[in-house]
Every structure is written in C-alpha cells, then in structure tokens.
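Summary for the funding panel

The consortium committed to producing paired sequence-structure records for every protein in the target list. Below we show the first two records in order, beginning with the earlier of the two.
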Amino acid sequence: MTRIKAWAFAGLLVAGMSGAALADTIETVKKAVVDKAEKITSLSFKMTSKMETDAGGMKMKMDSEGTYEWMRKDGKIFSRMESRQKMAMGDQAPQDSKTLMVTDGQFTYIYSEAMGQKSAMKQKADNSQKMFGKEAWDQMEKDYNLALVGNDKVDGHDCWVIEATPKSPQPAGPAKLKMWYAKDTTIGHKTVMLDASGKETMTATMTDVKLDASIPADRFVFTAPSGVEVMDLTGGAGGGASASSEPKADEPKKEEPKKEEPKKDEPKKEEKPGIKLPGLPK
C-alpha cells in the first residue's frame, strides 16, 4: 500500500509539474495575440470609458462612448471612430463634444464639435499597424515592464490579465496599466489606468467585438458637413496648413465662368499706353 501511495504521489507531482510547464506566460500570450492579429482582416466594437483625475487640485472627469470600425486591405489601413464625450473641469458644468475620425487608406480626417465650434483637419494616414498585433506589443515592451498576473472574464470572454509598469514614469502619466486580452479574439477588451496610490483613474471597455465581418466601403469615406472648411495638414506645396477643397454635404459644385471668345473677323483692340494700376491683393 505504501509503495502504491508513493507511486500515486509521484504521478500527481509529475502531472503538476507538466501543467506548470504548459501554463501561460507573457511570452506565450504575446505569441497567441500576435499570431491571431496578423490574420485579422476587419474589426469592429463598441466602447465606453470613464476617466477621473485630480492633478494639483484640478479635478477632471470625462465619460465617453462610441464605436470603432477597422479594416486592412491591399496593405492599407481603413478605420472609422465615432465618439461622444462629456467632460467637466473642477466645479464647471459638464461640456458635451463629438469626434469623428476617418482613415481612407491615404489620409486621416478628424472632425470635432465642441463648445459650439466645428472644425476638421486632414493629415497623412499611418498605414503601419499599431493598434494591436506585433507593432503594439513591441511598443509596449519598449515602454513598459509586462507581467501576466491572472485570468478574468469581460463581456463573457475568458481573458488574460496583463499588468504594465512604465519604465520611465511621467508625473502626469499612469503608475500602472492593467489590460484584459480575450483568449478567443486576442483583442484587448478592457484597460484600466492606476495612479501611484493604486486608485483607478481611467477604465475603458470594449463590447460587441466582431472579427472579419463585412464592413461597407462607404464607412471609410469622409464628407465634411456643409460650411466646415477642412484644414489640410498633409504638408503639400508651401509646407503649411491650408483650407482643403474636400466635398461638403449638400453643397453644389461651382461652375467655372466661361471665357469670352473673340468674334470672327473682329479686329483686336489695341491698348493705349498708360499707367497700369497694380492688382489688389487677393
């Protein structure tokens, strides 16, 4: 009996050691996330976030919600993010704002409405993949010390919980980040920022995550609202910002004035010599 118990104990010990060897590590999680991300062709989700900070006695609170759509095609990135924010500074009344960001594979357009003002800008698109996948992990490893600290559930998905500590902490930055990566989608479904005291200062959650679903192409087309000029920051001729001639909603195209052609057999009038006034500045 003693010999049987000894063999049984040895078997359990070996099984336990094998299980430990096969347990997830930060390296195996990274490989799973990166391998999955490289195969994703499209992604969409709903997002909500809550932020509350108190820096030097200045309190700030912001709630936001929105949607995000992303697609990779022919080596280009297409995306659309729509969000609404409500922000309060100190004892001031909350202010509502709205943001739309569209990337069409070549340019990124950012449109915002805040405090009664509307503005839009255009800049060159970044077609590198930094939201998730290898580039995102490489950047995280460069800026943070990463550790796998447990498992949890978010929106019904089993998740790995990863803790990120900044290698070079900034006074206004988080002291620590916690991220929940779903084991089935390998997408980050939740992010929490903590300050030096361990208090949560920001929580962002992604729900209704869909991978490789069909997204209509017109979701990645930007049309400026009527009356809104698009500031061009693409660094074209002159190198400065300029008003862009992007299409505007419900705005008819202007017809070019027709040039008056000289009548047939009509002699050209000779200009009399005289003093010509300089043209007025445009």
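The next record, for a separate protein in the list, is shown here:
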Amino acid sequence: MVRHGRLSKGCQCDQARPHCNQRLKSGWKCPQYDDSVERITLLCHPHAPKIPSQVIQTIECHAIDFFMSTHAFQEHGLIRGHYEYLSAFKDDVMANKRVLTSLKAVALAAYASRRYYVSSLRYINSALSSRREAAEDGTLISILFLNTFEALTCEIRDSLYHREAHLRGISTIVELRGASLFRSRRGLQLFRRVFLCLSVSCLMHLVRMPTGLVKLHRSAAAYMDADDPAWKLSDIMVKLASFRTDVKSHAMSDSTSIIEAAKYVDRELHSLAEQMPPSWQFQTIDIAKTSDLVMETQYHIYPDVWVAAIWNNIRTCRLLLHLEIKSQLESILDTSPHTFSLSDAFQHQHSAITIQQLISNICASVPQYCGHLPLLSGESSLTQPATLLQDTSNHHPPGGIPITAGIYLLFWPLLNAGQITYRYIGDMTGIQQAFVLGDIVKAGVDPFK
C-alpha cells in the first residue's frame, strides 16, 4: 500500500469509527486509519495457498507409466515372463535403488536419457560384488531392464553385444539362485523370460545352452504345465542349440549325418505344430488387392501375439534346420556330384519350398503385431500412413499384451525375413534395434562372428 508521508497534527486521525472526523470534514480517505486496518487484516487473514487442481507428476513417473502400459505384458494365466511379474513384487524390491534406477533408465530411453543407465550399472556392479545381493530378485530385474534399454536405444551393432553381456550376467545369477526361483509364480516367470532370451542368444551365436541352466530347466518342468506348447518348444530349442554347436565345431562333420540329425529335430518341431491345441490355432485371410500393411497376399489372425510368437519361433527353428539341410546338400553336389541321389534332389527342393513357406508365414503375422487387423478388416479406415502409436496408448489386444510389448517377440523370427519389415517396425515403435537388424540383413553379414 502507498504511504503518504508524515501527517501534520491537524490531519492526524482521531480514530473515530466507522470514519474519522477529519475525513468527514475534508472528504478524503484517511490514509493512516485505512492503512492500519488493512495491515491488521493482512496479518489476521493470510492468503491460503491454492491447492492445484491435479497432482503434477514428474517426467520420470509419466515415463514409467508409459513403459508399464506399453512394454510389459499383463497377467493372463500363462507363465510367459515378459515383465508381467513386476506387479507381484513388493515395494521393498521395486523401490530398491538398482531396480528403480534401471526402470527409470528404460522408461526414459525414448528421451535418450543415459544418466540413469550409467547410475544403474554402478548399482548393479556393486550388487554383483556380494553373492547375497547378486542373487536377489532386484538384481535380476535390474539387468533385464537394462537389456530392454539396449533394445530401445540400439543404434550400432555394439549395442547387440551389450545385450549379450547382460544375458551372460543374468545366466550366472539364475544359476546362483537355483531351484529357489521355482518357489513362486513370479520366480517361474523370471526364469521363463531369462531362458527364452538365452535360448535365442545361443541359437544365434551357435553355442550350447549353459549346462546349469539346462538342469534348472528340467527341474522347472515339475512346476510348469507340461502341455504348454511354449514349454515343449523350449525343450526342442535346447536340442537345436546343441545341434548347431556340433556342426560349427565339426563335432559332426559328415553331411549325411548332419542332414539326418537336422531332419530328426525338424520332425519334432513339425509334430509340435501339428498337435497345437484348438485354442492355439490361427486363421489365414486372403486379401483381394495388395496392401502396404501386408507383405504378400495373405495375413494371419492369432488368439494373441504370444501364441503368434510361439508359432513363429517354431518356424524360425525349422528355418534354421532347412537352411542347414539345403546347404549340406549343395555341398554334396559340389564336392561329390556322383553321390547326389534323386532322393537328395527331392529333399533339396522340399527344403527350398519349406524355407519360402516359413518366411511367408512369419511375415503374415506382422499385421497383428503392429495392431493393424482393424484396418485390414475394414473396422477402421486408413486415411494416413499407418503408425503403431495410434494404438499403443489405450488399446490392449487379447492376452493382456500391449502392441509394443509384443514387438519384442518378433525380432528373432524376422531376422531372415527382410530389411524392409525391420525398418517399418522401427519407425512405428521407436525400438532402435529394428533399424540395426535391418541394416545387418541388408549388408548380408553375420553380426555375431
């Protein structure tokens, strides 16, 4: 309030209420009296702070919410293991520094924030120096988060090697935990996730599954649904990894023996596909005209993308086997054509056709992974270039699997399906690993040699 300077005695307020006599005579506002009352009012009735209309969350909270809603599976009965177990862990695990920092790192990956990643590595390395801390759930979860971080931010091939380093660390920790992991559902989910990641890694690198993990896998069978196609497939993948390792190391060098061994494993995979339960069957839809959303002339509709992933993993395993069979037959034809029989010729043709069919079937699953089935069925209209982001905010497909989370299951099957598909997925999801894998396919090199 404005002060008017020192008042003369004649102008002094006589404190009469409600108005001083000097004011009544002169007709002006008494500054001293008014000032005093207003100051008293201010002292007696301070302004209450305004309560914001809504709680303002930090960017970290928003990022974590987004990650959990789009990159993690929801509980759905089956033990699948892709972060669906997070809600089952108590606050003492999820609030642990190494877990929370790793979660912030992966959640903020879209913002290129590596600060939490570096901090998380520091916490994890500290935990690994203690056998007790290394074996804790929090350490396992933290490393899995960083593994996902590498996929989200992958821009160079070195990131693929970083992921492999994380997986080797996880393998050691799981072996430390042993059968104690199987005492809870969340432990089984963690084991399933780790085992699937390591199975794919071993198949890509042509190395055997760690003996300790294979033994744990056998022990886990007592706690799992033995009729689950995904579980049956995991057994066959162990055999396939051993077969590929034997071929690479020349422990198995005779072409005929290699072909017969490959055909034996392929029969197991084919039998698994033939015996899929009714709830795991898919529809094949032919399209009347070409579409940018479909690789060829048909696409598949699966009960959910987890079912699609198991089908695609079967196809990918068979693809590896038939590529080996075809290669061995061509070697026989080149080195000793006189021994190349009519049966060999038929087998070569069969493998070539099978390879093309497997690749086509893998590509036919892509529209469902990308959330484009409504566009293809006519439920939605395609008025602009399709993007995954249209669907990820609120739409959860069957099986409790957000669209983006399902994409992680597609990379390995698509490794041989073409660069265009990879870059298409990378544009829509922001998972940078898609671009790197696309470049690898284009270059025609083996990134793991």
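Regarding this second record: The chain has a mean pLDDT of 77. The two ends are 79 Å apart (CA to CA).
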